[in-house]
Description:
disordered N terminus; single chain
Amino acid sequence: MRRIDVLTRPALIAAAAAALMATTAPAWAEITLKIGWTTSDGAEDPYAITARQFAQALEELAPGEFEVQYFPNRQLGDEKEMLEGLSFGTLEMGIITNAVIANIDPAFQLNDMPFLFTSEAQAHEVLDGPVGQQLLARLADHGIVGLGFAEGGFRHMINNVRPVSVPADVEGVKYRVMQNPVYVEMFGALGGNAVPMAWGEVFTAVQQGTIDGLEIPVPVIANNQYAEVTHYLSLTRHTYSALGVLMSQQTYDGLTAEQQAAVQEAAHLAITREREINATNIETLLGQLQAAGMEVNEIEDPAAFRGLVTGVYEMFREEIGSDLLDQALAAVQ
C-alpha cells in the first residue's frame, strides 16, 4: 500500500497561511525616503518638480525598491533644520537652497556670487562640471551626500516701492534676503537695506509692510502667491539659484551598491528634466504674474549693477577658496 504523509493540524494551518501570504500579500517598498523642501507643492514650483521627477526616475530605475514621500511647505522645518536632519541621519533627503548650504560650508557661497552667470546654460555647465563636483564632495564632511544641483532659476527683485531699472532704484528699499552674508553684502553694495529673514516669515512681513520686498525666482514668486502682496517685479537676474539635491550619508551608506547607483542616476535624470520643465514654465508664469497685476520690467544695463558688486568677490575669496573661485571665473569667461 502506498504511504500517505499526513500533516498535523498546526503544520497544515501554517502551510496554508504561508501560501495565502505568498499569493495575496501586497507589495511594499523596502526603503522609505522622506524628501523635504520649504516652498509649495505647486506644479510649477522647481523644488516640487525636482522631488517628483526624482521619485519617478527612481521608480523607473529600481521598480518597487523605494517609496519616496513628499514633505513640502516646511513640514519638516526650515532649511537649516532639514540640513541638520540630513547630517544627523534623521531625514533621508532634502532639496535645499544653495545659500543655506553655504551656512555649513562657506565654499558654496561661490554659487551666490552676484552676476556670476550670464545664462542658465552657463550655470549648468559650471555646476555639472569640476567646480560643482568639488563643492558637492565637500558635503561628505557634514554627513551629507550631494547628488547634484537642480535649478531654482535666476533670482529677481520684487517690491512695493518702485521698479528697479538702474542701481539707484535699489537704494533705501528694505529687501528680505536669505540668512547668508553674500546676499547681505550684495544688497549693501547696491545701496539697499538687506533684512535677513527665515522663509516662513516673509509673506506676512511683506503683507504687513515690515519689509518692502524680496528677491526670488519667478516660479517661487508664482507658486507662493507673491503677486497678492507685491507690485513690482524687476528681472535683475542678479544671482542664479542652485538647489542642492541632498541625501543623508547615513541613508546612502545603508543602500546596496546597485541602489546607490540608482539614486545617483535618478538624481541626474531628475535634474535634467526639472531644468527643461522650469525653462518652459517661466515664460508662462511671467504672463500669469502680469495678469495678476504685477508690473514687470527688464533692467537697463546689467554691467552697471555688476560694477558695483565686484568687491563682494574679493570679500569672500578666502572663505570660498581662491583656487575654486578662480576656476569658476575662468569657466564663465
